[in-house]
Design brief:
The complex is a heterotrimer. Chain A is α/β, with parallel strands linked by helices. Chain A contains 21 helices and eight strands. Chain A has a five-stranded parallel beta sheet with strand order 2-3-4-1-5, with helices on both faces. The radius of gyration of chain A is 29 Å and the shape is flat. Chain B contains 24 helices and nine strands. In chain B, the strands form two sheets. A five-stranded parallel beta sheet of chain B has the order 2-3-4-1-5, with helices on both faces. Chain B has a three-stranded antiparallel beta sheet with strand order 7-9-8. The longest helix of chain B has 20 residues. Chain C has a five-stranded parallel beta sheet with strand order 2-3-4-1-5, with helices on both faces. A three-stranded antiparallel beta sheet of chain C has the order 8-10-9. In chain C, strands 6-7 form a two-stranded parallel sheet. The longest helix of chain C is centred in the N-terminal third of the chain and has 57 residues. The N terminus of chain C is likely disordered. The chains are: A alpha/beta, B alpha/beta, C mainly alpha. Chains in contact: A-B, A-C, B-C. At the B-C interface, helix 1, helix 5, strand 2, helix 6 and helix 13 of B face helix 3, helix 6, strand 1, helix 8 and helix 9 of C. Strand 6 of chain B pairs parallel with strand 5 of chain C, so a sheet runs across the interface. Chain B: Its main location: nucleus. Chain B: It is found in: Nucleus. Chain B: Belongs to the ORC5 family. Chain B: This is Origin of replication complex subunit 5.
Chain lengths: 419, 540, 741
């Protein structure tokens, strides 16, 4: 299967590139003033000069903080073999201290071929960590502790951070603590005693500039000429690609994209989708692919689910809307039903359904998350009596009604009247 | 629908060709009778012949676009992928499309639904069990392979498990049997499918698990792992303040009317007849709901009705026959539109009862006989009185009790009414809305008992007259009896959901009750006691 | 109390129910229920105890002064009575059990048949590999869960607990896997985990700390389990927490067909109870079928028929008792269980109080006059005297109290009883046409007042003279009779007989013929009537055959109208005749005291415990229970030696329904400290008990201890539901919540 069709291989290659962050960010990180070189400089210093250090890598999601860090660590491990041992923690997993200490101990054990006992108490683990720090310090070996989702570690007592940073105060130890967070105020979250022990070196990761994006696109999407791909195919492919990249529409697409989310990751996903949509027959990327991609990556769930609504559900939504227009402070299913009945009485609509059917439609709306209860007391009362509210604006409702092909005219009228 | 042969229509809910069904059954029976030795290929893929693309597409009418998009996003063999987020309304074929796609691709995957795995621990363990090819049985006491509650442990275990699964996949020598070796193209990827993701939000408000799952791809950093999330609700429902890497959304819209028509028409015994039936039925129902499962629950009975006049179901209906059938069906459509819960009758007695109802001419409720005038279950008289007094207590304002129950509150009551009607219009409206909002009011136990005593003292009169001549014992036993273990009756009513109990701790005594009985129910009960309920009911 | 209480007292459900929704307000009163019921049930236990340490009945007490011979053969007879009780009651109990089973069995079979059908339906949609975690994608017929809604027709669930257990056993015996869940497993507290846990415990027989339905799947896919349906019975659906139940259903829905689980839910109220309980998304997965059990009235009638009419167990109850039982059934709790319980109490009381009751046992098995005479010959004088001192036989002047008379009397008694019951059965047959309850008929039939009226009207002696009144001339008396008690059920019945269509009438006569086998005279009459009816039918058919001009039909119509009338009339007359002559309430028969229990007050006090009142009363005079020497002879004066709680409560009586805590405490304190002097010389009289020693030296009751005791007492009162703790608004006041007293 593999290898027969160049188009397929091309796709596979592109996808492999896209899904491999190291590749992507190695592209970005060659310039001397890039975060990569800064970070590498800092860490290698603290490795070579055997000193303690602590850094914060800040920046919005998907700007390759971790990726760059990984790159740096990889290179350093090559440059200084067995002088570095890395411990990676993630705020999502190890936000509570005992768990974190355990994990640290586990990784250290793994690193140094010690056997790790699950039974060990958190105190033991803490002792062990400090001991290891000292040992490694004596052995001139740097322990690099990476704390991903750093802000999550700052919740609660911050015992872990304190004990870490405190241990690092002693001259013997030799460690680098690297906090990674997408909250720019991460260092403000630290307690005083922790912050005082924390060196306020920060690296800010920013989304790529347009030039970078252009470069990135080319680097990712262009097929290598010197490969097992048939030559003419590659040239053809790249030629078409250049056309697309030059195209004005494409530029617009990129701008809209970066307006929603300028981060690299978002861009990658966009490209990924475009690549996936590539037509296997022709085997070349087309502008259409990118258009589809942008349309499918920028969705409007509310409008979509509004279009899915059945007529009855639309009726209920409109009734609720009318309730809100009437400045009803709060209303529930019963009052909506009253409204529904009044509409039916005044306009003699064809679809007037029994109470339980309406209730079912109501529950559908709840499931669609177009409406929700305003109270969160679950078992307080039966559904009919709990106050509800719309989760969509009047405009959205308008638009939805317009787009919904099965929407009866009367509802549109009602909406227009009240607006 | 059990008796009269399973409905032709529910078949359509899973849209998949019967051929595959047979093969799967064959294999299934085999495996059931003799469980195979665990091997990655046999356990993590559908062990069957991969179904062709055409079969796949034809088995999902109205889902062509989605299937193709999925195939594109999952991509060719051994191509890594970003996490997918598949969302859309209930019963739009998300799960089955994904599963069938994997049947088509015939690649190893792990599925776990957050409905069945109702807690983090069970979710983790079921995942691991599948990855580690662990089968629960009497031998191992139905315990799972690893005990794992913390996300941290889960990630570690998962990483281990995934790595050696992937390694096994990489070198085909390891594969269990040569037969599987011949069968190419399981690829090196392994896919994790999480279904019913929306349920996780209810587990813990601190949406830790959700974030974990969404970030799992970046945490694992394994390009051989593909993540697929299936959810009923749209991505923006999962908003979290520090945000997360958004997976690639794939949207499954609800079926359109034509799609539904195709779906229901699939392998139908007599297509012509059924299509004519659908022409009649589908449109009105679609105005109400377009969910396949709800429709397929509603149609079979109707179709039976529709076919009743026909002698043989084989022949295609002519125009006038259609007309005849339609006119026959006409009266039944509206009721089944307005009924969401049909009870069918098993025992002869009930059938007879139903007949009676029918003859009374209200076919309005198919099958449900609550149109009968008397309550069809036994309730002790004191319970009835208690029910009524609870009903009054939560309908009437507490201030009126004195007026209503002084001696024989009829006239006074009427006076009140007039006053109420004099109150200005918008005030009335407010009170109405308020009533709508609050629903039946709550009341403390004491008030209930007070009213109860009044009612019984009134009601005894009507109750006793039959037995007056039977001497004092009975007369006096009336009151004492009714009053004595009234609280037991109260608990009985609570258990029957006729009265709801406030949550507060009873020792403070501040428990408040609320009657949830519908008015007609209360009236029925009153009628059975010959009790003039309406006279005591305060109308706003 | 008596462990014998536990099995048939409704306590287990109620108590556990409390545990479920933690401490309802009527907590204590609920707890009071088992105590009450066990008091009922331990009736026999109590009596036995009484019997062992004899003097039980006033009569024996009277004789207790007499010589030893009587003493011990008195004991001997006590013994006999106990045995008699055991024998009779066991008979009755088994009988009742059979009857109830009879009633249910048909419904059970229906359910089972249905289960089999469902299972085959499910199986017909293929046998997928159950262990796979993903739902079925292959083509299957039904994705809904078959659900039986079993209407128990009774808002009280006590009776049905047993019923559903039996249903479970029944299905098990037919080879289904059965799990009997109750609403406790569906509590919101334990959530879905709780119900899965108990499901697994019952089906798979494992208990995991993280129950998972996948386990069930893999269990089911094992060889030995594979080909049987698995049924989940939820006895009391209404009481489940809707959300949990819904979740359970949705979960089952994911495994539908892989685990062919069939739900059986007991519905106490109306058929659309599930609709009110469950959200629509769970509801749409159910494929409900409706079954119904016998209504409590049917059960009741069956039991009454079996116990009071069909067979003479030698134990019977008087009119008032039956009436009370009926009212209790109608008003208090319409549970058959409580009815049976009441009946048992009555039985026990009867045997414990009535010295001659040991004769009943023999009524049970043997009836030949000879047997009786020798039996009675053995009786000592005293017994005979008792027998003839019964008011009943004084009423009908039986002067010489010989054993023969007694024997014949008993024999007569039994015969009359037979007649009576057969007549009542006939009445019931008619009553069935208009849905009368047997219990009501029995009530009226037992009423001596009515009977005596009639008797006096058409001057009939009781013993003699059925012969005297032939049905022909009796009809007018009967007319009077039916005139007498208007609105009485029996007269309604008679009226009903008058205008009964022919078909019904003939079938009625058939049944009568069966019932009246015992009474030759009536039997013949019935035969006669039937023949008349037959003849008339033939005549009619003849008329139909003979072709005639279209003018005459009207006359013909009237004609057979009227001869039909005549038959109806005749049968009605016969009915009345039976009523007048054979419907002789047991209380009008000599010696009925031996087998008949009439003391309704006893029963009442036992059944309607009115726990709340009793709690208060007992508190007010506590020393009746803890009969300590110290405060025995204190009238109403409060002594420090009394139990704190009772002191407190008595003090509380003085306050309104708001009690100032401080005053209360003060008065309590001075009760404790006050009568130290009195305490002194009381100690001189009575041997010192440690308890009171520290009581009477005031100084060694510290303030603290008093406060402690005060607090404990208050809490006890609060827990008994007589007090309400201080509210936020008035922290220094407690409120009395005392009603019903």
């Amino acid at each position: 299967m593999e290898g027969d069709n160049p188009a397929q291989r091309a796709i596979a290659l592109l996808r492999r590139r896209l899904c491999n962050p190291n590749y992507i960010f190695s592209l970005l990180s060659d310039s001397p003033d890039s975060n990569y070189s800064k970070l590498k400089f800092i860490i290698s210093n603290s490795v070579t000069e055997t000193c303690n250090n602590s850094i914060l890598l800040l920046g919005p999601r998907g700007c390759g903080k971790i990726a760059v860090l990984e790159l740096v660590l990889k290179d350093l491990q090559v440059e200084h073999p067995d002088m570095i041992s890395v411990v990676r923690l993630n705020g999502l997993l190890h936000s509570d201290d005992t768990c974190a200490l355990k994990e640290i101990a586990r990784q250290l054990c793994l690193e140094h071929q010690l056997l790790f006992s699950k039974m060990a108490s958190s105190d033991d683990n803490a002792q062990f960590m400090i001991a290891m720090l000292r040992e490694c310090g004596l052995a001139h070996k740097t322990i690099i502790i990476v704390l991903d989702e750093f802000d999550l570690f700052t919740q609660g007592k911050q015992r872990l951070l304190y004990s870490l940073l405190d241990a690092m105060q002693s001259v013997t130890s030799q460690a680098v603590v690297i906090g990674v967070s997408c909250r720019l105020d991460a260092d403000q979250l630290l307690e005083k005693r922790v912050r005082s022990r924390f060196s306020h070196r920060k690296l800010l990761f920013l989304p790529p500039s347009n030039r970078d994006v252009q470069r990135l696109l080319e680097d990712i999407l262009l097929l290598p000429t010197d490969s097992k791909f048939p030559n003419d195919y590659v040239t053809e492919f790249n030629a078409r690609l250049h056309n697309i990249l030059g195209d004005q529409q494409f530029i617009e697409i990129l701008t809209t994209l970066s307006n929603t989310d300028p981060s690299v990751n978002y861009l990658l996903r966009f490209i990924f989708q475009a690549v996936c949509y590539m037509d296997l027959e022709t085997g070349f990327l087309s502008l259409e692919n990118f258009k589809n991609a942008i349309s499918s990556i920028q969705r409007q769930p509310k409008i979509e689910s509004l279009q899915d609504c059945s007529v009855l559900e639309l009726y209920i939504l409109v009734c609720m809307r009318r309730q809100e227009v009437k400045e009803q402070t709060s209303y529930n299913f019963n009052s909506v039903m009253k409204e529904y009945k009044s509409i039916h009485d005044s306009f003699q609509t064809s679809d007037y359904y029994a109470h339980n059917v309406c209730l079912r439609a109501f529950e559908h709306l709840l499931q669609r998350e177009l409406i929700c209860f305003t109270d969160n007391r679950v078992h307080s009362q039966s559904v009919e009596f709990r106050p509800v509210k719309l989760l969509i604006s009047a405009q959205e409702l308008h638009q939805g009604l317009k787009l919904n092909c099965s929407c009866p005219v009367i509802l549109q009228k009602l909406m227009d009247r009240e607006s | 629908m059990g008796k009269e042969g399973t409905p032709q229509i529910t078949k359509r809910t899973t849209r998949s060709s019967s051929s595959t069904a047979d093969s799967s059954n064959a294999i299934a029976t085999k495996t059931v009778n003799a469980p195979r030795p665990p091997s990655i290929i046999s356990d993590l893929t559908f062990g069957e012949e991969p179904m062709s693309l055409d079969a796949l597409l034809s088995s999902f009418p109205g889902r062509r676009l989605q299937v193709l998009e999925l195939l594109q996003l999952i991509g060719p063999l051994n191509s890594p992928m970003f996490p997918l987020f598949i969302y859309g309304g209930a019963s739009t074929g998300k799960s089955s499309v994904v599963l069938q796609v994997f049947k088509h691709l015939n690649r190893p995957f792990v599925y776990s639904s957050c409905r069945t795995c109702y807690s983090p621990r069970i979710l983790f363990e079921s995942m691991l069990n599948q990855l580690l090819l662990h089968r629960r049985n009497a031998g191992n006491g139905y315990s799972s392979m690893k005990r794992c509650e913390r996300p941290a442990d889960f990630v570690n275990f998962l990483r281990e498990a995934l790595t050696d699964v992937v390694n096994n996949l990489k070198e085909p020598i390891k594969k269990a049997s040569s037969k599987e070796l011949l069968k190419p193209g399981h690829g090196r990827m392994i896919y994790l499918i999480f279904d019913h993701l929306e349920l996780i939000q209810e587990w813990d408000k601190s949406s830790g698990i959700i974030l974990l799952l969404f970030n799992l791809f970046d945490i694992l950093k394994m390009s051989e792992v593909g993540l697929i999330f299936i959810s009923n609700v749209s991505p923006d429902a999962y908003y979290s303040n520090t945000g997360h890497v958004e997976p690639i959304p794939v949207y499954f819209p609800d079926y359109t009317e034509d799609n539904l028509c195709q779906i229901f028409m699939r392998n139908q015994a007599n297509p012509k007849l059924f299509s004519s039936f659908l022409d009649v039925v589908l449109r009105p129902f679609c105005r109400m709901t377009r969910r396949v499962d709800e429709l397929s629950a509603a149609f079979p009975l109707l179709f039976k009705k529709y076919c009743e006049p026909l002698s043989d179901l084989g022949l295609a209906p002519t125009e006038d026959m259609k007309r005849k059938l339609f006119s026959h069906l006409q009266p039944h459509i509206a009721p089944s539109l307005n009924e969401i819960f049909r009870v069918q009758y098993e025992s002869r007695v009930d059938v007879k009862a139903k007949e009676k109802v029918r003859r009374k001419g209200n076919i309005r409720k198919l099958g449900i006989e609550d149109a009968l005038d008397e309550i069809d279950f036994h309730m002790s008289i004191s319970a009835k009185y208690l029910l009524i007094s609870a009903f009054l207590a939560s309908r009437n304002p507490a201030t009126l009790d004195a007026a209503l129950f002084d001696s024989m509150g009829g006239s006074d009551n009427r006076k009140r009414k007039r006053k109420a009607s004099q109150t200005s219009m918008e005030k009335k409206e407010n009170t109405e809305n308020e009533l709508l909002m609050r629903g039946p009011g709550t009341f403390p136990l004491e008030r209930l008992l007070a009213i109860f005593q009044c009612l019984t003292s009134v009601g005894e009169g009507s109750l006793e007259e039959g037995q007056r001549e039977d001497g004092g014992v009975m007369a006096e036993d009336g009151d004492v009896g009714l009053m004595s273990d009234v609280l037991l009756q109260l608990s009985t009513l609570c258990n029957a959901n006729f009265i709801m109990k406030g949550g507060t701790c009873p020792l403070e005594g501040s428990t408040r009750y609320r009657s949830t009985v519908s008015e007609e129910m209360a009236l029925k009960v009153a009628r059975s006691l010959r009790f003039p309920l309406s006279k005591y009911l305060y109308r706003r | 109390m008596a462990p014998s209480a536990i099995p048939d007292s409704p306590s287990p459900p109620t108590v556990s129910d409390n545990e479920e929704n933690n401490l309802q307000q009527f907590f204590v009163l609920h707890k009071a229920l088992p105590r009450k019921s066990s008091r009922k049930v331990s009736g026999p236990g109590k009596t036995r105890r009484k019997i062992d340490l004899s003097p039980a009945s006033p009569k024996s007490e009277g004789k207790s002064g007499a010589n030893h011979v009587e003493e011990e053969d008195d004991c001997y007879y006590e013994q006999l009575r106990v045995e008699a009780f055991n024998a009779v009651w066991s008979e009755i109990e088994t009988k009742i059990k059979d009857v109830l089973r009879e009633i249910n069995i048909s419904a059970f079979d229906e359910v089972h048949r249905w289960v089999c059908e469902c299972f085959s339906t499910i199986k017909s949609s293929g046998t997928p590999e159950a262990v796979r975690p993903y739902p079925l994608v292959t083509d299957i017929n039904c994705k809904q869960i078959f659900t039986a809604l079993v209407l128990t027709k009774n808002i009280e669930f006590v009776d049905d607990l047993l019923t559903f257990e039996e249903l479970g056993l029944h299905l098990k015996s037919k080879g289904c896997h059965v799990a009997n869940l109750s609403s406790l497993d569906f509590s919101a507290k334990n959530g879905i985990g709780g119900c899965l846990r108990s499901l697994l415990r019952q089906l798979v027989m494992v208990s995991l700390d993280a129950p998972d339905i996948a386990v069930l799947a893999s269990w089911y896919s094992e060889q030995e389990n594979y080909n049987n349906p698995s049924v989940v019975i939820i006895g009391d659906m209404e009481r489940c927490s809707g959300s949990v139940l819904a979740e359970f259903i949705l979960m089952l829905r994911e495994w539908v067909v892989k685990i062919p689980i069939i739900l059986v839910m007991g519905v106490a109220t109306t058929i659309d109870a599930p609709r009110n309980l469950l959200p629509s998304n769970a509801l749409k997965h159910l494929c409900p079928f409706k079954f119904s059990l016998g209504s409590p009235y049917e059960r009741m009638d069956a039991i009454v028929e079996a116990v009071l009419l069909k067979t003479c167990f030698g134990f019977n109850v008087g009119h008032k008792v039956v009436f009370f039982l009926r009212n209790y059934f109608q008003r208090q709790d319409g549970t058959v269980t409580s009815f049976i319980k009441a009946f048992k109490i009555a039985c026990a009381k009867h045997f414990s109080t009535e010295p001659l009751s040991f004769l009943c046992r023999d009524l049970l098995n043997d009836d030949s006059e000879g047997f009786w005479s020798e039996k009675c010959a053995l009786l000592p004088e005293v017994m005979l005297k008792n027998a003839f001192s019964f008011p009943s036989c004084q009423r009908c002047k039986m002067t010489e109290g010989t054993s023969e008379n007694l024997a014949s009397g008993l024999f007569e008694l039994k015969k009359l009883q037979k007649n009576w019951s057969s007549v009542v059965l006939c009445l019931h047959e008619v009553g069935k046409f208009q849905k009368m309850h047997l219990l009501d008929i029995v009530c009226e039939a037992l009423d001596p007042a009515t009977y005596n009226k009639n008797a006096s009207d058409n001057h009939l002696g009781i013993g003699n003279g059925f012969s005297k009144s032939s049905p022909s001339d009796c009809c007018l008396h009967a007319g009077q009779y039916s005139g007498k008690s208007k609105g009485g059920i029996i007269s309604q019945v008679v009226r009903r007989v008058r205008d009964l269509p022919v078909a019904l009438l003939s079938q009625l006569l058939n049944i009568w013929r069966k019932h009246t086998k015992g009474i030759s005279e009536i039997h013949d009459k019935v035969k006669e009537l039937q023949s008349m009816l037959k003849f008339e039918d033939n005549g009619k058919s003849l008329k139909q055959d003979s072709k005639d001009t279209p003018k005459r039909p009207s006359s013909r119509g009237t004609m057979n109208m009227e001869d039909k009338k005549t038959v109806n009339e005749k049968s009605a007359t016969l009915m009345e005749y039976m009523i007048v002559n054979y419907l002789q309430p047991i209380e009008c028969i000599p010696f009925h005291e031996i087998i008949c229990f009439k003391n309704v007050e006893l029963l009442q006090s036992a059944l309607i415990g009115d726990p709340r009142r009793t709690v208060q009363v007992d508190l007010l005079k506590s020393h009746n229970f803890l009969q300590c020497s110290c405060c025995s002879r204190s009238g109403n004066v409060l002594l420090p030696s009394m139990h704190d709680t009772s002191i407190m409560y008595t003090l509380a009586q003085e306050h309104g329904d708001l009690i100032n805590l401080h005053d209360w405490f003060q008065s309590f304190k001075e009760i404790l400290l006050g009568p130290s002097t009195k305490g002194k010389h009381k100690m001189k009289q009575s041997p010192l008990s440690k308890k009171r020693k520290d009581r009477d030296e005031p100084h060694d009751i510290s303030e603290a201890s008093i406060q402690a005791r005060f607090c404990r007492a208050v809490t006890e009162l609060q827990i008994t539901g007589l007090l309400r703790m201080p509210s936020k608004r008035r922290p220094d006041y407690v409120q009395r919540v005392a009603f019903g007293l």
